[in-house]
Model the fold of this input.
Amino acid sequence: MANTKKVAVIMGSDSDFPTVSAAVKRLKTLGIPYEVHVLSAHRTPDAAARFSKQAREEGFGVIIAAAGKAAHLAGVLAAHTTLPVIGIPIKSSTLDGLDALLATVQMPSGVPVATVAIDGADNAAILAAQMLAVSDETLAKALEEMKRQMEEGVQKKDKAIQDAAAAL
Done:
Protein backbone atom coordinates (compact mmCIF):
# COMPACT_ATOMS: atom_id res chain seq x y z
CA MET A 1 0.00 0.00 0.00
CA ALA A 2 1.58 3.28 -1.11
CA ASN A 3 1.62 6.32 1.14
CA THR A 4 -1.10 8.81 0.31
CA LYS A 5 -0.72 10.89 3.46
CA LYS A 6 1.17 14.17 3.34
CA VAL A 7 3.37 15.72 6.00
CA ALA A 8 2.80 19.34 6.94
CA VAL A 9 6.02 21.22 7.71
CA ILE A 10 5.05 24.37 9.56
CA MET A 11 7.47 27.01 10.80
CA GLY A 12 6.80 30.00 12.99
CA SER A 13 8.98 32.29 10.88
CA ASP A 14 10.65 32.18 7.49
CA SER A 15 13.96 32.57 9.35
CA ASP A 16 13.47 28.94 10.49
CA PHE A 17 13.64 27.64 6.92
CA PRO A 18 17.43 27.05 6.79
CA THR A 19 17.01 24.60 9.68
CA VAL A 20 13.70 23.14 8.51
CA SER A 21 15.03 22.52 5.00
CA ALA A 22 16.74 19.35 6.32
CA ALA A 23 13.28 17.90 7.05
CA VAL A 24 12.02 18.85 3.60
CA LYS A 25 15.05 17.24 1.94
CA ARG A 26 14.57 14.01 3.92
CA LEU A 27 10.84 13.85 3.12
CA LYS A 28 11.64 14.39 -0.54
CA THR A 29 14.33 11.66 -0.47
CA LEU A 30 11.82 9.22 1.04
CA GLY A 31 9.17 10.14 -1.54
CA ILE A 32 6.75 11.53 1.04
CA PRO A 33 4.44 14.30 -0.19
CA TYR A 34 4.62 17.45 1.91
CA GLU A 35 3.57 21.06 2.18
CA VAL A 36 5.58 23.83 3.81
CA HIS A 37 3.93 26.85 5.46
CA VAL A 38 4.75 29.75 7.77
CA LEU A 39 2.17 30.05 10.55
CA SER A 40 2.68 31.72 13.89
CA ALA A 41 1.15 30.67 17.19
CA HIS A 42 1.23 34.32 18.26
CA ARG A 43 0.93 36.40 15.07
CA THR A 44 -1.54 34.19 13.14
CA PRO A 45 -3.22 32.10 15.84
CA ASP A 46 -6.53 31.75 13.98
CA ALA A 47 -4.81 30.59 10.79
CA ALA A 48 -2.66 28.10 12.74
CA ALA A 49 -5.72 26.69 14.51
CA ARG A 50 -7.69 26.51 11.26
CA PHE A 51 -4.86 24.71 9.46
CA SER A 52 -4.52 22.17 12.24
CA LYS A 53 -8.26 21.55 12.50
CA GLN A 54 -8.48 20.87 8.75
CA ALA A 55 -5.20 18.96 8.35
CA ARG A 56 -6.69 15.45 8.47
CA GLU A 57 -9.37 16.37 5.91
CA GLU A 58 -6.66 17.87 3.70
CA GLY A 59 -4.83 14.53 3.56
CA PHE A 60 -2.10 15.08 6.13
CA GLY A 61 -0.93 12.23 8.36
CA VAL A 62 1.65 14.05 10.50
CA ILE A 63 2.44 17.68 11.30
CA ILE A 64 6.00 18.88 11.91
CA ALA A 65 6.17 22.25 13.69
CA ALA A 66 9.37 24.26 14.05
CA ALA A 67 9.67 27.33 16.25
CA GLY A 68 12.22 29.19 18.31
CA LYS A 69 12.10 31.27 21.46
CA ALA A 70 8.68 30.79 23.13
CA ALA A 71 8.00 27.95 20.62
CA HIS A 72 4.29 27.53 21.23
CA LEU A 73 3.56 26.57 17.62
CA ALA A 74 3.66 22.78 18.03
CA GLY A 75 1.43 22.94 21.10
CA VAL A 76 -1.11 25.21 19.43
CA LEU A 77 -1.26 22.89 16.41
CA ALA A 78 -1.52 19.81 18.65
CA ALA A 79 -4.36 21.40 20.61
CA HIS A 80 -6.49 21.53 17.45
CA THR A 81 -5.87 18.08 15.90
CA THR A 82 -5.67 14.40 16.69
CA LEU A 83 -2.85 13.94 14.18
CA PRO A 84 0.63 13.35 15.60
CA VAL A 85 2.62 16.57 15.94
CA ILE A 86 6.41 16.59 16.01
CA GLY A 87 8.08 19.70 17.40
CA ILE A 88 11.46 21.00 16.30
CA PRO A 89 12.83 23.51 18.80
CA ILE A 90 14.87 26.07 16.86
CA LYS A 91 18.09 27.47 18.30
CA SER A 92 17.87 31.21 18.82
CA SER A 93 20.40 33.83 19.76
CA THR A 94 18.87 34.24 23.20
CA LEU A 95 19.16 30.96 25.11
CA ASP A 96 20.67 28.67 22.45
CA GLY A 97 17.30 26.99 21.92
CA LEU A 98 16.79 25.83 25.50
CA ASP A 99 13.73 28.07 25.78
CA ALA A 100 12.28 26.56 22.61
CA LEU A 101 13.09 23.03 23.75
CA LEU A 102 11.31 23.46 27.06
CA ALA A 103 8.32 25.21 25.50
CA THR A 104 7.96 22.40 22.94
CA VAL A 105 8.47 19.40 25.20
CA GLN A 106 6.60 20.56 28.33
CA MET A 107 3.05 19.96 27.16
CA PRO A 108 0.05 19.40 29.42
CA SER A 109 -1.61 16.01 29.65
CA GLY A 110 -3.87 15.35 26.69
CA VAL A 111 -1.90 17.50 24.23
CA PRO A 112 1.22 15.50 23.35
CA VAL A 113 3.97 16.82 21.11
CA ALA A 114 6.77 14.45 20.10
CA THR A 115 9.90 16.57 20.35
CA VAL A 116 13.24 16.10 18.63
CA ALA A 117 16.55 17.73 19.48
CA ILE A 118 17.19 21.43 19.06
CA ASP A 119 17.48 22.00 15.28
CA GLY A 120 16.72 18.27 14.78
CA ALA A 121 14.79 18.69 11.53
CA ASP A 122 16.20 15.55 9.86
CA ASN A 123 15.09 13.40 12.79
CA ALA A 124 11.66 15.05 12.73
CA ALA A 125 11.22 13.96 9.11
CA ILE A 126 12.46 10.44 9.88
CA LEU A 127 10.06 10.19 12.83
CA ALA A 128 7.19 11.40 10.63
CA ALA A 129 8.16 8.76 8.06
CA GLN A 130 8.20 6.06 10.74
CA MET A 131 4.72 7.11 11.84
CA LEU A 132 3.40 6.91 8.29
CA ALA A 133 5.25 3.62 7.69
CA VAL A 134 3.05 1.90 10.28
CA SER A 135 0.49 1.56 7.48
CA ASP A 136 2.78 1.86 4.43
CA GLU A 137 4.98 -1.14 3.65
CA THR A 138 6.81 0.64 0.81
CA LEU A 139 7.84 3.44 3.12
CA ALA A 140 8.83 0.92 5.81
CA LYS A 141 11.16 -0.75 3.31
CA ALA A 142 12.68 2.63 2.35
CA LEU A 143 13.38 3.29 6.03
CA GLU A 144 14.96 -0.14 6.43
CA GLU A 145 17.22 0.64 3.47
CA MET A 146 18.16 3.99 5.01
CA LYS A 147 19.15 2.22 8.25
CA ARG A 148 21.16 -0.35 6.28
CA GLN A 149 23.05 2.44 4.52
CA MET A 150 23.77 4.15 7.85
CA GLU A 151 25.17 0.89 9.23
CA GLU A 152 27.33 0.41 6.15
CA GLY A 153 28.65 3.97 6.51
CA VAL A 154 29.67 3.39 10.13
CA GLN A 155 31.39 0.12 9.20
CA LYS A 156 33.44 1.94 6.53
CA LYS A 157 34.44 4.63 9.04
CA ASP A 158 35.38 1.94 11.58
CA LYS A 159 37.63 0.24 9.02
CA ALA A 160 39.25 3.55 8.07
CA ILE A 161 39.98 4.38 11.73
CA GLN A 162 41.39 0.90 12.33
CA ASP A 163 43.67 1.33 9.30
CA ALA A 164 44.76 4.80 10.45
CA ALA A 165 45.51 3.54 13.97
CA ALA A 166 47.51 0.60 12.62
CA ALA A 167 49.60 2.97 10.49
CA LEU A 168 50.73 5.05 13.50
Remarks:
- The chain has a mean pLDDT of 96.
- The first helix runs from residue 17 to 29.
- The chain has six helices and five strands.
- The beta strands are 6-11, 34-38, 60-68, 85-90, 114-115.
